């Protein structure tokens, strides 16, 4: 077992940045084979190969305006009309014109296009006016030449990418399929309905973690969310084994420490798992892990152990699950952008501190939120993401620090 340490012993925490690189690399190696999907089903997936155009863009000279395609000097005699979708005959005579619509193919031998709003008709019905010096049509290949690479592999497919692919002749895209995920919620003390009380707490992760995973591009079938799993080793082993048979990633919540009912590490040992990362030097949420299990088909599946405290679980999601999924989908390792702190943020000694912050778009600054205990969700519900305070430092107003955004709903701009 190529783990950092054997299950049941204390592990030396890996630095936050190194942990992210390790899980991304593991995901990249285990990425499933690309598939071809129709354009209508590609949104949100990842390009598995560069997008190239099958033709010049545009493929033929295209009018940019409604007006007149003219040959020679005016006034011009009208000899026809050209609409989009048709192939016009050439203008064979000097002094002639055809009415032309935006997007229509420009006739051969046309010298210029005259905008309709800048034209007039004389008493004989001829068209008069002065064409602009700048050509009013798009030339073949103006946007791209046939075979040109438009977008690299590894970028998310957006509606804009779908539209571009369609415009240059594609009916399908070669993409990485969405990873399939399951969630196992550990803890006999959890309630799945109603208010907490009598020593039992309401499970907040069973309803929320699948939503986070979907925002990271996972496919999560509600039938693959099991809550709660009984606090016994056989129940843990059986639940993980069953989930691994159908998915690429199993997320678990709770049980990542070594207490009397923390069965995750022994369960991973029984399943023959190897750790990719076992504990991370980050606060909150350091007892997080990612382990790899080789399936009967020889392909790797992953178990992500999230702490049981809700905010710590989300820290584990943004710290380890996000880069793991980026690797599984062939995307680059997420590179946190930089933000400017508007207030002081304490450090956490030798650990990286992920501090919940809210962005002020007016001032361009980030400000810590309240109610940020590991078991609290009130601050998280109002936050935009985490400011990254490096080990051995503290954040001061005006400091530029990395920022890990919380994933947004599909189509929403940051």
TrEMBL record:
| Task performed by this protein | Catalyzes the insertion of molybdate into adenylated molybdopterin with the concomitant release of AMP.
- Which lineage do the record's taxonomy fields give for this organism? Bacteria, Bacillati, Actinomycetota, Actinomycetes, Micromonosporales
Name any GO cellular component annotation.
Answer: cytosol
Task: From the record, give the transmembrane residue ranges.
Answer: none
Q: Where is the MoaB/Mog domain?
A: 182-327
Any one GO molecular function term: molybdopterin molybdotransferase activity
Name the source organism: Polymorphospora rubra
Q: What is this protein called?
A: Molybdopterin molybdenumtransferase
Enumerate the cofactors the protein uses: Mg(2+)
């Amino acid at each position: 077992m190529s783990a950092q340490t054997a299950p049941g012993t204390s592990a030396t925490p890996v630095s936050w940045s190194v942990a992210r690189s390790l899980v991304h690399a593991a995901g990249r190696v285990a990425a499933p084979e690309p598939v071809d999907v129709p354009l209508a089903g590609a949104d949100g997936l990842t390009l598995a190969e560069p997008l190239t155009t099958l033709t010049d863009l545009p493929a033929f000279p295209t009018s940019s305006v409604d007006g007149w395609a003219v040959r020679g000097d005016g006034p011009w005699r009208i000899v026809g009309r050209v609409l989009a979708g048709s192939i016009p005959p050439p203008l064979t005579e000097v002094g002639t014109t055809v009415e032309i619509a935006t997007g229509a193919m420009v006739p051969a031998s046309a010298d210029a296009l005259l905008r309709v709003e800048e034209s007039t008709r004389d008493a004989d019905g001829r068209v008069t006016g002065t064409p602009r010096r700048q050509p009013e049509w798009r030339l073949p290949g103006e946007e791209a030449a046939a075979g040109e690479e438009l977008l690299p592999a590894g970028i998310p497919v957006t509606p804009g990418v779908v539209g571009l692919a369609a415009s240059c002749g594609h009916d399908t895209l070669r993409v990485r399929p969405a990873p399939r995920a399951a969630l196992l919620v550990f803890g006999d003390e959890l309630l799945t309905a109603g208010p907490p009380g009598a020593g039992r707490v309401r499970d907040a992760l069973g309803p929320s973690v699948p939503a986070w995973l979907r925002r990271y591009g996972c496919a999560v079938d509600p039938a693959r969310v099991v809550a709660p799993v009984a606090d016994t080793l056989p129940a843990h082993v059986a639940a993980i084994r069953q989930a691994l048979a159908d998915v690429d990633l199993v997320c678990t919540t709770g049980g990542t420490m070594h207490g009397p009912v923390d069965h995750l590490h022994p369960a991973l040992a029984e399943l023959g798992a190897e750790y990719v990362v076992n504990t991370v030097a980050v606060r909150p949420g350091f007892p997080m892990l990612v382990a790899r299990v080789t399936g009967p088909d020889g392909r790797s599946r992953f178990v992500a152990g999230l702490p049981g405290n809700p905010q710590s679980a989300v820290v584990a999601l943004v710290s380890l699950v996000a880069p793991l999924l980026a690797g599984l989908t062939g995307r680059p390792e997420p590179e946190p952008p930089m933000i400017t702190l508007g207030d002081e943020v304490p450090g956490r000694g030798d650990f990286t501190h992920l501090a919940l912050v809210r962005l002020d778009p007016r001032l361009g600054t980030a400000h810590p939120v309240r109610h940020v205990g590991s078991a609290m969700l009130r601050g998280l519900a109002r936050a935009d993401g985490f400011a990254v305070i490096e080990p051995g430092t503290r954040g001061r107003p005006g400091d530029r620090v990395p920022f890990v955004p919380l994933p947004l709903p599909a189509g929403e701009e940051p």
